[in-house]
Amino acid sequence: MEQVLPPIIRSDILRARKEEVDVALPWLMALRWGEFLCQIVLVISYWLIMDRGVPVMSVSAIFLFEVGSNLFLHYRHRRDALVSNLMILVILLMDTLFLTRLLYVTGGAMNPFVFLYLIHVVTGAIILREKCSWLITFATLAGYSLLFFAPFTPDIAAGGTSHCLGDARQADTISGSFELHLKGMWAAFVVTTFFIVFFVSKIQKALADQRVKLQALGEERERNKRLTSMATFAAGAAHELSTPLSTVAVVSCEMIHIMEEQKASPELLSDIRLIRKQVADCKEILYQMTAGAGGHMGEEVLEFSIQQVVNQILAGIGGEEQHRVRVTVEPQDLKIIMPFRSLCRTVKGLVKNGLEASSPPQEVTMRWFATPKYLGVEVWDPGTGIAEDVEPMVTEPSFTTKDSGLGLGLFLAKSMAEQFGGDLTIQSRAEQGTQVTLTLALDLITKNYKAGNYARP
Fold it and tell me: Which H, E and C letters describe 299-354, residue by residue?
């Protein structure tokens, strides 16, 4: 199954592709200038050494195209304009066609400059995509083959003497061994071009895959760095606030004890108990902050069932909202081993997102399922969905579409999923709801279960 890359990754790859063309373009132009000089040497040598005429119009048209197209590429490059693969492909095909014509009028298959074709083959293999590079290869092979079998044209040489193997008059002047040598050159050219294109294309593909992997590793490293930074901040905040909160908790307990002995008014006792409860809630919030920012990395590993997770999530939602959650648990007997509170917090965050995205009496579905390799939970809400331009960014830290949101819920859920060998996928359509699927690798959350001695939540 072909891997579908997220839009951000695809855009980064397209940007990298443009950067590759921008880097290769000056070398392509330099290479074409070099080929142009070689062709000038070829024409002059044929004219002086072989003492034969050259069709001026044909050669001039070829040189004019090469100079004009190179100046055009130089102009586009200087203005930082897009030079597409199609544009380069057309230019290389035209170069191949004109080189074939130039070789045909200056010696045909016997011309030692036939290996100028390799410039086009190598250039196409390095710059263009694999299919385009093969097209360039077959075009050069076709051009080289035509030099053997094309009929004689009177304007080839001033004396009207044929130099093409396809002409019967030349067969009398060329020995069989020389003809065999020329055919051997053609065979060697075929083998060489196929090897060049095949291996260069494979190397280019391997390098492209490596770049994608390095980019993914870099993004993961950046996420972990931000996660560590948030965990450090949350742990510091929890440490700084724990002492005053503990003091308030102790004092409030003492006040409750004294007021009960002195039979203080029920209203005053109720206020003190409220303070005590709020302190306990603050401590829980601090724990959630620490866990949410990566605290699950050091959280105690517990053994529990999925139903226990569901019960904890529904209890945490509370009120009328929990009646809007429709739960399905398919792996009833599955026992998993991982940080219990962190899993509950993560899935509860997904459910609360669904509840906030929809409105009563609409229901949010939480379905737990298992595959041979993964445990998954699927949360679906019938809300308005996520805009297409926003969807690629929802798992980025500090990105939120809610007025009171911190933009950490989906980012932390994805981080936790990746830590346990799974992933977080989001499928959403405007006005048709959103489906968020969290998966965890079973071999990471159930291994050593029989031999383990774990606490229970």
Answer: CCEEEEEHHHHHHHHHHHHCCHHHHHEEEEECCCCCEEEEEHHHHHHHHHHHHHHH
